[in-house]
Amino acid sequence: MQLSNFLELEKVDTADNVERVQNVISTEQGYLNRTVQDWACWDDTCSFVEDKNPNYTEVNLQNQTLTGIKVNVMLFVNKSGSVVYAKSVDMYTGEEKPIPKKLLRMVEDGTLLSKSENDKKSGFVLLDEDPMFVACHPILTTKYNGPMKGTLIFGRYFDDVLLNDFKDSTRSSLLMYRIDEDLPPDFQTKLKSLSENPDRTIVEPLSENKVAGYFELLDVSGKPALIIRADFPRELYKYGEKTLNNMYFFLLLTGLMTGVGVKFAFDKLFISRLIGIDNFVTKVRSEKDLSRRLPLKNNDELYRLSKEINRMLNEIELAEQELKAQEREKKVLLDSLNELAIFVNPQLYIIWANKAALEFMKIDLQKAMGQCLKNTPDISIPLSDSLDLEQIFMTGNKKSGEFTGKDGRVWIVQAIPVTEEGGKIIGVLEMCRDITESKATETLLQEKQIAEAANRTKSEFLANMSHELRTPLNSIIGFSDLLYEQVYGELNERQLKSVGNISKSGKHLLNLINGILDLSKIEAGKMELSYKQVDLASKLHIIKNLLYPIADRKNIQIEIYIDSSLSNIYADEARFVQIMYNLVDNAIKFSYENGFVKIWARKKGNMVEITVTDTGIGIKPEDQSKLFKPFSQVDSFLSKQFQGTGLGLSLVKQIVQLHGGYIWFKSEPGEGSTFAFVIPIEGIKVEDGTARLDGKVQS
Fold it and tell me: What separation in angstroms does the CA of 136 have from each of 110, 117, 122?
């Protein structure tokens, strides 16, 4: 009875090994099916079967192309059943070979042709040379749309080289026979049994040292084409037989030793208790009830045996409880993940899934378990379709990749093979994480970098063009001034007015170009400040004198107040004058007649604070956000009433910031405005005493 148990275990183990061989063959068939589908569902193939474009054959149908995708034969058949193009090569040498005649006959009689857009065929064809696995697919567009344009047929020989590859990958001995040839006696008997049940695997011992498993491979019509026998050593049976022999010897020896001098009545009592223990163990095993315990009677050998069995049951129960606790911990941990996690067996049936995956599939765990992953569209798209799971079971290598669904969501997918102690792959753990938001953030960052680069390019272009424009403009202004001064002869009143307008407009345009040049230099990071000591009082009075004629026309008084503790500051003299000129000029421009403009210079720690206050029209709250923006003026009406380029305050802000300072303002409509800025009195300093500007060090 015990030996029969080992025979049953051997049968199950052999069936598992045969299944591994079948999986390897199925994986190779699946590869050819996917390859022919990729070529058949291609717009270029769709066009080729109709227009026979020679460029398609020159680019895509070279001999090395067929050897590269592991295909011996390609047949392109149009929808009328005519062969448009055919090619056959030796996969190992790349030489072109004749098309097998039987394959062409099967095209003529329609055996290999697709009848509809969903009619796909695959299976073996018994050719004169070697058996060939053939995959047929209807020719459609890249989007898998009809109408069907014909049939694409790929074939690969199932030759000795491929059979040896299967032997090496499965580490087994394989024999293959065609059913259209004479079969050995054992194959003939197995063929009849397999024909009655094609999905069945027949396991049978061949000798004391070898056991075999038989299975069929079908042709394109679903009929038997090949029968394969996989041979394996009978290690499990040999081990069981040896163990049983040792056990029998041990029991015999024990029986002889314990039987000497024991009375018949005692023997009867001993045997009955032993049978009770055996019945107890059998019942615990069948009912899987680890809470049962043997009653302890008499302080003898059976008492100690019963005690050890009870102790073993205690340990097993504790181990089971610990295992369940670990399972609960793992379930809680995996359910807490945002990633989808699914564990599938080699047949791609779902064994387990975490909470995120179940919610994604809209199904509970009980319904999900046992379902084929490929038949679960909601989860198959990000997981199964993006990774070749059959290849993972075959190679044992983990895979990962990025996948974009039809809804635009982006997933990062990873599949990790899980092995038992012997190294056999028992399943694959698949993880899938939605990275759509992070991808969008990455895209925005790239677009921001592109925009910044474009802005820098724009600034450099404006800086270069401003230089090119100033040269002819200076010439226009110079010659118009000479004409206005009548150096070349007298002009009448109308001519003088026109020449004056030319000079005035040219100078206005030159100021605009100079402003653009300065702003472009700053944005391009090319403006450099030349620091020197500046007499603050002297420069402020120079500004007052420069703008006095403009202020006098509106009867505006300019007043200057400077702290007694302030004398010199460290700054770029020309740029400081540019700041003050713009601020005071704006104050005068927007002040009412008979008003005043006050300039204050105060010391604030190691900074100098300069304010310019006017008694003008002020700035509305809704217009204040427009200040300091290039080419922006606060009101369209004011932009007509008061001339300006809209660059002044923007340049002031940039130059103040280059000096290491900042600028602000306050204003009330109808009550005037105050603009103020601060810059370091001693400039921007570093340890060696030089001034730093925008990341550069200037002496």
Answer: 12, 12, 6
